[in-house]
Specification:
The chain contains 13 helices and six strands. It is of the alpha+beta class. The strands form two sheets. It has a four-stranded antiparallel β-sheet. A two-stranded antiparallel sheet has the order 4-5. A hairpin with a 2-residue loop joins strand 4 and strand 5.
Amino acid sequence: MARTSAPVTPPTPEPVPTATLDKIGDFLKLDFRRLFVWLRAGLVWALMLAAAGGVIGAAYGLLSKQRYTVTTEILINPANLQVVENDAYSQPGQVDSQILNARSKQRILTSGNVLARVVDELGLANDPEFLDPDQTASTSGAGASGGKSDPKLIAQKSLAERVSVAADETSFVTTLAVSAETSGKAILISQAIVKAFQEELAKAEAAGAGRAAAALEGRLGQLKRDVQAAEEKVESYRRSHNLSASNGQHVSSQTMTQLNSEIGEAQSRVIATQASYDALVASGVNGANPDPAVSAALSALRDKANSLRQQIDSQSMTFGPRHPTIVRLRAEFETVSSQLRAEFSRTVGTAKANLDKANASLASLTAKMNDLKNNVFTDSESQVALRELERDAASRRAVYESFLSRARQITERERIDTTNVQVISTAVPPPGRSWPPRTPVTAGLGAFAGFALGMLLAIAMGIVRDMRQPPNRSGMAKRRGRSAGGQPHGDSL
C-alpha cells in the first residue's frame, strides 16, 4: 500500500502593523494615565516651544510697529442753528428723524471727502506710515493696465483703516477713534478730521442752499416776464377804455364825487341868491335894510332918505311949505329919492343876475352829472374786466416778489454756517499704546501658545507611536472583559 503524505500547511506571515478600526476604537477609549504618559514624554519639547514662544512674543512686542489710539467725543445735534426765519432746511421734529439725521452726519465724519481733505491738509500721501512702498508697488503692478496708482488714494485707504466711530445709543454723542504710530500724530489727525467734518457739513449745506438759490434765480426771469406782460395788459386795457386812475381811484369816480360836491354848493348858492332876491323885491324901494351886505350904497341912500323925510316932517311944524328950508329939504329929498330908485333898480337887477347865474351853474352841473353817470356806468362795466386783469397781475407780482425775496435770502444763507456740531471732549495723549500689547503680555501669550503647541504635538506623537505597534488581540480582549466587569484596566499600559 502506498503511503499517503499529509498536506503541508504554509507558514502564516506576521501581521503588518496597520491602523484598523479596532485599534482606533481602542484608542478612543484611552484612560488618562496613558494621556499623561504622552504629555510627560513631550514635556521637554513643550517647555522648549514655550520658551521660544515667549522670546518671539517679547520680540514682537518690542520690534513691531506701535500704534496709539486717541478718542474725541463729538456732539452731533440733528437740529441746525435757527439763525433765519423759515430756513431752507427744515428742523427735524420726530425722534426717528433726529436719529437718522444724526447718523447721516456721523457717516460724513468718515466719508471719503473728509478723509481726502485730511490727506491733503496733513500731506499723508508722503508719510511712510500711510504710504507703504511695497503696497504701492503691488497696487501699481496689479493696475498696470489701468494706469499708475494715486498715492493719495492709498493714503486715504490706510487712513480709513485707522479711523473708527462709535455712536452712543442714549444720546447724539459720537466717539471718533484715530490710531497712529505716535500719540501726537493721532491727535493731529483727529483734530484735522473734526475740522474737515465741520467744513464738509458747512459746504454741503451751502451747496444745497446754492442749488435752491440757482433754481429760484432761473425761475425769476420767467416770473418777471409774466408780471410785465400782466401789467402791460392792465395798462393797455385802461388806455383802450379810457379808464385813467389817480391815487388808486378812477378819474370818472373822482369827477363824479367832485361834481356832487359842486352841485351841492351850487344849490346852496341858488337858495341863498333866491332868498336875497325875494327879500329885496319884497322890501321895495323904501323898505328896511335886513341885509346891508346886499348893497351898501342902497342902505346909505335909504338911511339918508329917511333922515331927510324926518327933517321935513319936523320942520313943517315950524315953517310953512314955501319956507326956504322946507324947499331946500324937499329938493334934497327928491334928489336922494331919485338916486334911491336908481340904486334899488340896479341892486334888483344885480340880484336877479346872480340868481340867474346860480341857476345856470346848477343846471350846467346837473347836465354834466347826467352825462357823467352814463360814462360811469360804462366804466363800471369795463372795470369788472379791468379788476380781473389787476388781480391776475397782483397775484403774479406777489409770487415774483416772494421768489425774489426768497432767492436773496437763500443766497445770503450760503454764507452762514448753521451746523450745530460741538466737540465735548478733545483728543488727549493716551496712557499707553493700543497695539501691540505690553511686552510682558506678548511674552506671556507667546509662551502660553508655545507650551500649548508642544502639548498638542506630544499627544499627536504618542497617538502615532501607539498606532504603529502590532495589535494585541488577547490584551485587547482582556481589557474589554475587565472593563465590562467593572475592574480597572491598568494592564492596558
